Amino acid sequence: MAIQMVDLTGQYEKIQPEIDMALLNVVKKGAFINGEEVKQFSNSLSKYLNVPFVIPCANGTDALQISLMALGLQPGDEVIVPSFTYVATAEVICLLKLKPVMVDVDLHSFNMSLSEVRDAMSIKTKAIMPVHLFGQCVDMEPLLEIANEFGLFIIEDCAQAIGAKYSFSNGETKQAGTMGNIGCTSFFPSKNLGCFGDGGAIYTHDKSLADKIRMIANHGQEKKYIHKYIGINSRLDTIQAAVLNIKLTYLNEYILARQKAADIYDELFSELNTVIVPHRSSSSTHVFHQYTLQIKNNKRSELKNHLGQEGIPSMIYYPIPMNKQEAFNKRARVCGNLLNTNYLCSSVLSLPMHTELSEEHQVYLANILKSFFNK
Predict the structure, then answer these.
(1) How confident is the model at residue 1 (pLDDT cuts 50, 70, 90)?
(2) Fold category of 8-248 in CATH
(3) What 3-state class would DSSP assign to 226?
(4) How far is 317 from 373, CA to CA, in rounded Å?
């Protein structure tokens, strides 16, 4: 029984006529850069997220870098990041000669530990970059209180959590990426909202900040050949925007499919005391970019090999914490002992999760997984 980690072909086949027509229209018009589809997507995503300004760009990493550039941080300024995340979050900080300050994460949600954030602050701290990991929001309300108390910027890295909703104590609900000063996302093909190549977007409620972001993403141009800032060249091309225009209309459906698959996994593993299923926050929905188990008793590597021998893919996100990556030697400040991060790096295992995942496949996978622990 063939099971895929991500099934982009199956997803495409269900919407093939719409996608093919959208791509053909771009080719016929020949406006491959800054075509009308890019503006259309920006407007549609703005409405979906209920945020007034959305600036598309070339990829999620650029989105993070442009955001930091727009905030006017100076070399040596510190930005607090979780230690358990993809490298891009801290990488862009170092590229701008800022200093990433790596803090531990919560053992249940995998997201940034807020108590660690307070401990990590110094007079050089200027921003916090929470990562909504695997599809679930960081506990943003207390984090925003910390940022307001100390006058810090918040850049939300929501590359894995587009469509997740956070509920505040007053009943207000906001989308991931729309609560801080700036939100950044990626449209890498395997993301919940993915294009057919690279793509990204930046969002904010602040018009002046949006104007600056837009200029920085276009060589710092205020007008053609008038360069107000040092910028970069980072555009979402028209073909990718055309794909995203179609897929955005299906995003809520895709999220529901992932949530249903996650519920099925939970039930299948409910009596298995050798794994811990993903935690569900009381303040955030979970859109399940990944379905990530914690494997007990140091059995992660053996289980992964066992699944692989049976033709079942799985992934380890992330085997080496950022604080132990050579690239950050002498470039980062590490706060605390990062015990949770180190434990998670040695125990997490992500199972196949995508919109085309069938219950039959999940039952088959679960039986193989259970057989490993029952042998």
Answers:
(1) low
(2) Aspartate Aminotransferase; domain 2 (3.40.640)
(3) strand
(4) 22
Enumerate residues 6+ apart whose C-beta is below 8 A from 374.
none
- Per-residue pLDDT for 375 more than 80? no
**Beta strands at 182-186 and 153-157: parallel, antiparallel or unpaired:** parallel
Q: Helix axis angle, 88-95 relative to 60-70, nearest 10°?
A: 40
> Angle at Cα 195 formed by Cα 131 and Cα 224, nearest 5°?
90
H or E element: which one contains 362? helix 359-374
Whether the Cβ atoms of residue 14 and residue 257 lie closer than 8 Å to each other: no
Output the pLDDT for position 190: 97
pLDDT tens column, 292-311: 999 999 999 999 999 999 99
State mean pLDDT over 102-112. 97
Bin 151: left if φ > 0, else alpha if -120 < ψ < 50, else beta: left
Task: With cut-offs at 50, 70 and 90, classify the pLDDT of residue 192.
Answer: very high
Dihedral of the CA atoms 191, 197, 203, 209 (nearest 10)?
150
102: which 2 tokens?
């790596």
Q: Work out the mean pLDDT of the chain and round it to a whole number.
A: 97
The predicted model gives 53-70 an average pLDDT of 98
pLDDT of residue 255: 98
Residue pair 81/90 in contact by the 8 Å Cβ criterion:
yes
Determine the distance from the C-alpha atom of residue 224 to the mean position of all C-alpha atoms in its chain, rounded to a whole number: 33
* 251-374: CATH superfamily: Aspartate Aminotransferase, domain 1 (3.90.1150.10)
**Where in the chain are the domains?**
8-248, 251-374
CA pair distance 104, 338, nearest whole angstrom: 5
Q: Which helix (H) or strand (E) segment is 182 a member of? A: strand 182-186
